[in-house]
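Hi V.,

You were right to ask for the full record rather than a summary. Here it is.
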Amino acid sequence: MNKSLVTNALAAIFVLVGYGFSLPIVFNVGLFALSGAITNWLAVYMLFEKVPGLYGSGVVPSRFEEFKAGIAHLMMNQFFTTENIDRFLSEKEGLTNFDLAPVIDKVDLAPSFDALVNTVAQSSFGGMLAMFGGTEALVPLKEPFIEKMKASLVELANSEKFHELLKEEIEQPKMMADLQSKIANIVEQRLNELTPQMVKRIVQEMIETHLGWLVVWGGVFGGAIGLVAALLQG
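Predicted structure:
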């Protein structure tokens, strides 16, 4: 239900009834209520739309760059501060949930196996290996080697010692600054994807949902003032 539309419609009905049936009190209540509701509706409307001749209207689109800068400042100075990042890293759960298994699973360890084979071939065991078919004899061991290596890396990444070392390294001042810089770049890139129309739609939906009552109360207080004015005139 559109609160603004209902309020304006009710106020207009009061105006028509009061005028049509020569009821000054009803007319005054409706007229003042309609003026209050329309004034507040226009104030909300002018936040997003430029009205010719009305200075300051269309403030959201016209201040779009300042709006983005404000969001970026809020994100970096309220959420992604050094203290907040350090607090997250200091919490055991923060590092415990830092799961590297999916990353390790995607790593290609085939070059590691090839390097191991070449090392063996070039060592003193190379001659002995040649007697058993050379490096080709080790090919069946490639997949088991890769699986074992990944399992070992996952176990290492999940160990408490690794989490402690990771925390110590990340908490280094230079690392923390680099981390904040990367977060700032991500925030900036995301904000650059926003257009004035997208921002307008996001803010407009939020404000119309929560500030629709401004129009309602504008009509209510306007009507009350109209009633008092009519009674004083009577």
